[in-house]
Every structure is written in structure tokens, then in C-alpha cells.
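In the previous chapter we treated chains in isolation. Here, by contrast, the input contains two separate entities that must be folded as one system, with a combined length of 539 residues.
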Amino acid sequence: MPRYAALIYGPEETDSSAPPEVWAAIMAEYNDFGATAGAAGVLVGGEALQDTATATTVHVQGGAKGGELVTTDGPFAETKEVLGGFYLLDCADLDEAIRWAAQIPGAWHGRVEVRPVIDFSQGQ
Amino acid sequence: MIDPLEQMIRHEGGRVLATLVRLTGDITLAEDAVQDAVVEALKRWPRDGTPHNPAAWLTTVARNRALDVLRREARRTTKETDARLLDQVVLAVGEHTTDSMVRDDQLRLLFTCCHPALSFEARTALALRTLCGMTTGEIAAAYLVPEATMGQRISRAKKKIVTARIPYRVPADHELPDRLPAVLAVVHAVVTTGHHSPAGSLDARHDLAVEGIRLARLLHMLMPDEPECTGLLALSLAAHARRDARLDDAGEVVLMADQDRSRWRHEEIAEAAALLDHAVHLHRPGQYQVQAAIACLHGLAPTFADTEWSQIASLYATLERFTPTPVVRVNRAVAVAQEQGAEQALRLLDQLVPATVDRWHLYWSTRGELLERLGRKDDAVHAFDQALGCSPNESDRRFLLRRRRLIAGEGEHPT
């Protein structure tokens, strides 16, 4: 069965901009989708990401593995490159995540944006 | 006049903040808890006397405050993180506050604040706030941005530290070559911004230089075997020693050639030279040691003409190998002009890529000075026009205008 990634784009929501009831309504919509797609057997997995203020962009200079690592605060903002894929990494902290991100070929062929996943068990 | 006891309490509070950040893992919570402890101390110490170990007293009170907050939150949200934090803080109750512990915590905090995943502006602001105890308002004034903007910058960075889990630790030895430069760059930028003084906020800028030196001293004390930390402190001291001669009584920029050297703080230059001497004996050269050597040579020279120009020119050539930037090249050209003449110096400037310098007023004014020395008056005036077109700050603009008029033979006019 072919697999598809559904990438979700939308306006940036900062924690203060939307009242809790608006958030609750949006969450209900997503839960609804999760239930429907899950019951249909099409849903393989998915994560919600923290806002772009928590993002770090990783680049390895020199076009080859092992080049100098450059980290930048914020999301990847270029428009020439396009999203080519993603990995989900289990790491103890941002330093470890950056170390792994720097091993992804995309880090020297382009950029890798590292963004924490929202952990709903921690009560956001 | 600030009460010395109050000053001591605030200073000690600043020192224990780093420990509270380690215990709570949250800069905002730590700041609030320390603030409460400082208020408590201001109330009690004048009445009951100063405790034997002020830092330990403040740490204990702040920790109990943090515990209260975490307990309240844990009841309200049953958040797993808070429960974990609570364990951490409770475990730490038996800990004794020692000087070496405070220093280790401060070093951790400095590395966290200067993490490369934070923007450079945020690193600077966080370091000034958490390690120098500057308020958001003071930092905003020093960097000429609205207080609300600075507040957002700081709270966004704090949030990123927590949410993205920027670790609170000193990097391992093998990571230091990657991580230490970011810390040094922040401290260096604080001092340099303090010396570069646009109209209006002179006091704020001066404070910034003083706080930058405080950070450099802290870093040198915390990492005494890192020659670049010592080099940075030496550089900061040698540059700061010239503060009283940099501007004249009317607030106009005075070039080093024209500065009144009796207004330099020679004891500070001597301290810088001694520190540098210690650093170079560790035989691990770096850009800050080279810059400190240049600053010390300037500081020790009896007059501008009697400066060791050939040594300075070769130090700039060395510095260019560490940091091949147009700024270094322009400074090297100035030294070469003294030693070998303006012709040679111009040749060094001609090798620069125009796009990297054509919006930079100091490049153009240096070029203008060299052209003037070669008798190429029209070219020199043109270079000063270019410099004025680069939107320099107000005191630089007045200086450039004065030089341009002098060279053009128009004499001095009031501006």
C-alpha cells in the first residue's frame, strides 16, 4: 500500500493568542480526525509540533558530512528548498537532537529544522 | 547612595540565581524565587543581623519559595514535569552552598544562556540579565530597543530553553572548541557595544562595558586554564582603560592618534598585560589573545608615533588567519600605513571584496585618510562622502563631516 505524508500548515499560534475554548475546539476537530482515520486503518502516526519559536535550524557547511556545524535560532525560512522528508528522533535534550540532525544528509545538502514535539501527557 | 547591605544582598542574590536555575530547571521560576528571597533578606537582615553564610541563606529561602510554587502547581495540574522538579528540589535541600558550587552553577548558566540554538541578541540579553543582574529595562536602554521588545526577546529565549530542552551544563572538554567561542563572542560583544557610544545613552553604554568586564572576569575565574578566556579579559581591560580619552568634553569622537594618553588608566593596562603574559605561556594562541596583544601594545606606547607599529601590523596579519574579516583587514591597513606607508596600506584595502565593505563607514573613512596622505584630495573627499552615505551614528557622522571639510579645504563650520 503506498504511504503518504500529510503535512499540516497553518497560522502561527502563540500560547497567548488563542483563548482556551478555541484551542479546545481545534483539539476536538483533530481528535475527531484521529478517531475516523484510525478506525479506517489509514493512520500510521503523527505528532503535533511546538511553535516555531522553539525551532533550531541545523546546517553542516562544505556540502559534505563532517563539515562545520552551524546552528541558527528559528525555523528554516528559505523558499528555494522544499520539504523533502522527516525523521522522528528520541533524544534526551536539544544538544543530542542537534548532534543527530547534523548526521542527516539533508544537513549538508540543505538544512534540517529541529522542532520539539508536543508531549500531551505533560498537560500543555 | 546605595546602602552597602542592600548592595551585598542584591549581589549575593545574583550569585545564587544560577544555583536556583539548576535546582528548578526554569529561569523564570528561579528569578521569581530569588527575588522573593532578596526581599525577605532586605526585611530581616537589618533587624536580625547578616547570616553567617549569606549565599546559603538566600539559596535556602529561594528554594523553599520555588518549592511552594511547584507544590501549588503540582496540585493544580498534576504535571509530571513539576512532580519531577519537586523531587529534584527536595533532594537538594540537604545541599550546602559553597563558593565552588556557586561558580560551577554560574558557568553552567553562562553556557546555557550562550547556547548556539539561541539568537545572538537573546544570548547577550540573557547573560546580562541572569549573570550581571541587569534589568530588562537597563538592557533595552543599552541596546537602544524598546523595553517591550527586549522583554519579548528574553521571555522567548527562556521559553525555548525549557520547551526545546536546552541542557543546563558545561559542555564536555571535547565539545568546548565548538561551544566556548559562542560564550566568548557574547562577552566580547557586550564590552564592544559598551565602547561604541551613539548619542544619548552614554551611561547605559558605560554600564554595559563594566558588566562585560564583569562577565569576562567571571569567565576567566571559572576557566583559568583556557587562555582565550584570559585573553578576552585582557583585551576588555586594555580597551576599557582608554574610556576617558575616547570622547572629548563635547562628546566628540577622538581618534587614538589624538587621544590624551594621561587620561588612560595605566594600572588597568598593566593588569591586562600581566594577564596576557600568563595566557600566552599556555601556548594555545587564539584571536582574543592576539587582539589583547595589540590593545596592550597601544596602551603601553608613550605616543602614537612611538607605537610598535611593525609588531602591531604583524599581529593583525596573525589575527587575519584566525578571523579573516574586513574589520581586521582595515585595522591591519592602518598599522601598515604607519610602518610601510599609505601606498602599501591601500593595496591591502584594494584586495577586499567591495560588496563586503561598501556599506561600512569605517572602511571608507580609512580609505579617505590614506588617499589624503597620498595627496589624492578629490579621491579622499569622495571616500568621505561614501562614508557619510553609510548612515553612521550621530557622533561618527559629525566626525566624518569635520574630516571631510578639513580635507576639502573648506575649513571648520559649526554643524
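Chain B has a mean pLDDT of 88. DSSP finds 21 helices and no strands in chain B. Compare these points with the single-chain example from earlier in the chapter.
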